[in-house]
């Protein structure tokens, strides 16, 4: 489909027979919301998270069109396992979503302290 086809911008377009791997953070706030949206559009979803219970809860909520995977995105063998198990469950991966990060302040601490010093001078 050409990129300027109106269908390319139809985000409500269903995704029947498509499968998605929501990797790392799939059981968290954003990952769970993305998983729900993909499932609502008709996709089968593999929910991967460091916390097995979170992954299970998120997949359970989506019913039998979802599987839960537990592992750490920092470990290559775990990521390889996510891919292998998703392909084993659904036969393919059409969409990959990565939703994990360390959190914490968006501004580096050093820059923050410099701006604090500057603000004290003014
Ligand atoms: N929520 C927001 O408004 C917001 C805004 C901007 C950026 N972010 C960033 O987006 C990311 C996700 O946000 P969220 O609100 O969904 O967080 P969350 O804490 O609700 O979920 C994060 C999930 O990631 C999992 N996780 C952590 N380390 C992992 C690892 N090494 N491997 C696999 N899974 C791992 C956790 O078990 C948890 O289920 C974070 O990095 C956050 O800083 C969030």
Automatic annotation (TrEMBL):
Q: Does the keyword Isomerase apply?
A: no
- Is the keyword Glycoprotein in the record? no
Source domain of life is: Bacteria
Question: What ranges does the record list as Basic residues composition bias?
Answer: 108-122
Q: Name one GO molecular function term.
A: oxidoreductase activity
Renumbered to this chain, region (Disordered) spans 101-122
Q: Which family does it belong to?
A: Belongs to the short-chain dehydrogenases/reductases (SDR) family.
What's the protein name? Answer: Short subunit dehydrogenase
């Amino acid at each position: 489909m050409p990129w300027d086809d109106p269908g390319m911008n139809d985000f409500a377009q269903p995704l029947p027979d498509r499968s998605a791997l929501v990797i790392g953070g799939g059981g968290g706030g954003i990952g769970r919301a993305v998983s729900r949206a993909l499932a609502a559009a008709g996709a089968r979803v593999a929910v991967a998270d460091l916390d097995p219970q979170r992954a299970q809860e998120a997949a359970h909520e989506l019913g039998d069109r979802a599987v839960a995977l537990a592992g750490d995105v920092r470990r290559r063998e775990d990521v390889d396992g996510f891919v292998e198990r998703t392909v084993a469950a659904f036969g393919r991966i059409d969409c990959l979503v990565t939703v994990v990060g360390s959190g914490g302040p968006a501004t580096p601490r050093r820059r923050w302290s410099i701006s604090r010093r500057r603000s004290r001078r003014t």
